[in-house]
Automatic annotation (TrEMBL):
Coiled-coil residues: 124-170
InterPro entries for the chain: AhpC/TSA, DUF4369, Thioredoxin-like_sf, Thioredoxin_domain, Thioredoxin_ResA/DsbE_sf
Disulfide bond recorded as keyword: yes
Protein name in the entry: Peroxiredoxin
């Protein structure tokens, strides 16, 4: 499943508010006079909207201009390189100390939100740095086959992961009316650290205006989508009837699942761009060729992207997949994988002749063993 959130440091949140002037006064340490400083705002889909440009004079710069509506994140950068400093947009005047050789670590003061954001990012950097050091040590211990230290470093990494999760939970619990809280929630979602029920509980505990931000709406959509996928996955469980579907074949004809059922049928979700799928295809081809005459059918549902019909067809031909194929060419927006609760590919569902699911996600030798059990090996 395509990830719908990026790390919180790269997302903008909007909330309804009256228009306010923003004021940012900066000290530019080590940055030559005349250097341009750029101010941008992160919008929907991480689009960067230019707001203003200032020039360094006597190691100082100033931005004062009517802001766009809403809260959000601002980016400060210089003409010297691509490093950026992230600020939480606030009604309070902000003061920035910008360091030439360490733009991202520069200092922002002037508002409680930015102070909280500073604390949040500092803690995250510390934990990430420590984890990176431990991973290097762990890899070295593995190379040296030092089992004792492998266990020790692995334990320390697990403890750091707990600290990472707990630090973000503390931010959310103690700052329900803060943008930083919803950024922390986004980070936890990205880290796959929360069950959907936990995510929903944290989301519901945030202030209304925070939930209504762009990031808040994204998380709301994520919760709804996750629930829908779980419901679909439960529906497409072993023992249940396979969800009906139809879609176009490579030659443009509509084909329904019901038209493809044999004694046993594999519903195979894949895509031409999916390397694990392509690696598994030779095994599926071998099983199909061996058992098709005994009643095995396959219908492959491709998650290829819009406009990629030729790539889909070429992959079918190259991999010698001589069975039924359909696709809506809608990538992860295709309703068929959604109805089966598919969140990753390859994914397979084995059906009996009545269309009842009798097994899921069989691959490699496990797939052949199951088909041999059902149709007999010869």
């Amino acid at each position: 499943m395509k990830r719908i959130f990026i790390a919180a440091l790269g997302l903008l949140v909007f909330a309804c508010a009256k228009k306010e002037n923003y004021s940012i006064k900066g000290t530019a340490i080590g940055i030559p006079d005349g250097t341009e400083i750029y101010l941008q705002e992160l919008g929907k889909n991480n689009k960067r909207n230019s707001l203003d440009t200032a020039k360094v004079m006597d190691e100082s710069f100033v931005f004062t201009k009517p802001s766009a509506e809403g809260k959000g994140l601002l980016l400060l950068s210089t003409a010297l390189d691509r490093q950026q400093l992230i600020l939480v947009k606030d009604q309070a005047p902000l003061t920035v100390t910008l360091y030439k050789d360490s733009i991202p670590s520069s200092i922002v003061t002037g508002s409680a939100e930015n102070e909280l954001f500073n604390t949040y990012t500092k803690k995250s950097r510390q934990l990430n740095k420590k984890k990176a050091e431990l991973r290097l040590a762990l890899n070295k211990a593995r190379q040296e086959t030092d089992g004792i230290m492998v266990t020790e470093y692995s334990s320390q990494i697990q403890e750091l992961d707990k600290q990472y999760i707990n630090s973000k939970k503390e931010i959310i619990d103690g700052n329900s009316n803060s943008m930083v809280a919803i950024m922390a929630l986004s980070d936890l979602i990205n880290a796959k650290a929360l069950k959907i029920e936990e995510t929903e509980n944290y989301y519901d505990g945030l202030a209304s205006d925070i939930r209504k931000t762009t990031l808040g709406n994204s998380i709301k959509g994520y919760i709804a989508q996750s629930k829908s996928q779980r419901a679909a996955s439960n529906l497409a469980s072993v023992g249940n009837k396979a969800p009906a579907f139809s879609a176009q074949t490579p030659d443009g004809k509509e084909l329904a699942l019901s038209e493809t059922l044999g004694k046993y049928t594999i519903v195979d979700f894949w895509a031409s761009w999916c390397k694990p799928c392509r690696l598994e295809n030779p095994n599926v081809v071998r099983v199909y060729n061996k058992y098709h005459d005994k009643g095995l059918n396959i219908i492959s549902v491709s998650l290829d992207r819009p406009g990629h019909k030729e790539r889909w067809i070429r992959a079918i031909e190259k991999d010698q997949m001589d069975w039924y194929h359909v696709s809506n060419l809608q990538h992860w927006q295709d309703p068929i994988p959604k109805s089966y609760g598919v969140r990753a590919i390859p994914a397979t569902f084995l059906l009996d002749e009545e269309g009842t699911i009798i097994a899921k996600n069989l691959r490699g030798q496990a797939l052949e063993n199951k088909i041999a059990e059902l149709l007999g090996d010869s």
